[in-house]
Amino acid sequence: MLDEILSILDKHRFQLNPSKCSIMRTKIDYLGHSINEYGIATLYDNIKAIRELPIPDHPTLKQANEFIVLEFPGPKLSYVLSTDASRVGLGAVLKQIAEDGRIKIIYYLSRVLTNTELRYSTTKLEALAIVWARTKLRPYLLGKDFRIETDHCPLCQFHKKRSRSERLDRW
Questions:
Q1: Distance CA 95, CA 104 (A)
Q2: Are 130 and 91 contained in the same domain?
Q3: Taking the CB of the first residue and of the last residue of the chain, which one, N or C, has fewer CB atoms within 10 A?
Q4: Does 87 lie in the same domain as 47?
């Protein structure tokens, strides 16, 4: 079998560095994992710090429930898309308001700006965040009622009048 693998590599002109090769081993450590005949496991050194964290003295139920968790969307609930932009990146949160008033987080999105986008005005960045998030979350939002939340007041009146920017009008 080893001869077959080496002949295939040779046929396709692959070159191996002997110092980086491990042949005929039953266990190998690779990319933070230990791989053997039984499966793959995380290397102990990588999880040692987490395992040695002290157990909190008195965690309350409220503190335990504050941990951020994504939830499945409710098919009958409308969506709320909250977006924001900064000079470094874009962010969005897709959420729903449950019947009991609780906010259900469905999806988080974020990305850094491209070199071109770094030159956009604040209004264009905030609009870009909305357009980008709406595009990314299309499978969730298509055919559904949803509200957009933004902290940029000039965009709140955007749907009522034309802007001075062709790009904003296209979006």
A1: 5
A2: yes
A3: N
A4: no
What is the spatial distance between Cα 66 and Cα 104, in angstroms, rounded to a whole number?
Answer: 12
For the record, the structure tokens of 6 come out as 């080496």
Q: Is pLDDT of 163 > 80?
A: no
Same domain, 28 and 98: no
Cβ–Cβ < 8 Å for 90, 128: yes
Domain ranges, residue 132: 79-170
159 pLDDT exceeds 60? Answer: no
- Does 71 fall in a domain? no
Check residue 22 and give its pLDDT.
79
Domain count along the chain:
2
> Taking Cα atoms as reference points, which of 143, 166, 163 lies closest to residue 152?
163
DSSP category for residue 144:
S
Total Cβ atoms within 10 A of residue 143? 4
The model's pLDDT over 48-70, given as tens digits with 9 standing for 90+, comes to 888 888 876 776 766 666 666 78
Do 114 and 155 lie in a common domain? Answer: yes
In sequence order, the 6+-apart residues with CB closer than 8 A to the CB of 127 are: 155, 158, 168, 171
- Do 106 and 146 have their domain in common? yes
